[in-house]
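[Q] Does anyone have a clean structure-token version of this?
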Amino acid sequence: MAFFQRINWKADGEFLIRTASLLDKGFSLEATISYLSITSPKNHERYEKIIASLALGNSFAYSLQQNGFPEFICSQLHYASSHGFFIQTISETGIHMQRKAEEHNALKKTFQYPLVLFSTVIIVFFLLRIFLLPKFELLFSQLSSDGALGTNFTYFLLEQVPIILGVILLTLFLSISFLIKKQNKKNAYQRAYFYCRIPYIRQFSQIHYSQIFSREMGYLLKSGLSISHIMQVFKSNDSPTFFQAIAKQIIPSLEQGLPLTEAIT
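[A] Here you go.
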């Protein structure tokens, strides 16, 4: 996955919903995506790549992941062919992505005002330092020689604060960029484990990943598989790494006779 790769949650969610609708009407998967590639010229090349991947024998989930769809969405689609709720899963993941788009828009609006305000303050301080401060430098030096504390503090604000704010902003940006880049190199389970240890977002992360696990577990149980069989499905090599890691930790607990609730805890 490319660093800073942007996911168009709304458009990708709409693609999945329309795919589910056409499949429900009897279209084949290849014919469905081919039709959507014609009706969506902007994504024509991307959809053609998905069709080419399917033609090579790859699964729908793998083809989507190779073409920029989120890993946690593809992991849900991976098991759709196993539990038999393929069309329903595609539709639900599409709705999920559109809800994500709404959450992202709300989050942007929440942070937009503080970000603009902070940026404006930095720009104003820099303009004062560049254009105004040199003209008053002699005056400030004369006043500071008289020992006026307020004058010294004002001069410090105009001269040093823009640099300090700029350094803080740059450090914050580089730290977040490094953290994201480092996390993108890890597998899905390692990223989930990391996010579930961060204060303030820990509870949201735990709910998010628990929902993904319980959803697939529920569908597979509904299709008639036993818990032990489901764990073996999760543990298989072609399974997403997130589910593989969870299954490898749950299976020993089940073999020791612990109930599923304790094993999951």
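[Q] Thanks! Anything notable?
[A] The longest helix spans residues 86-145.
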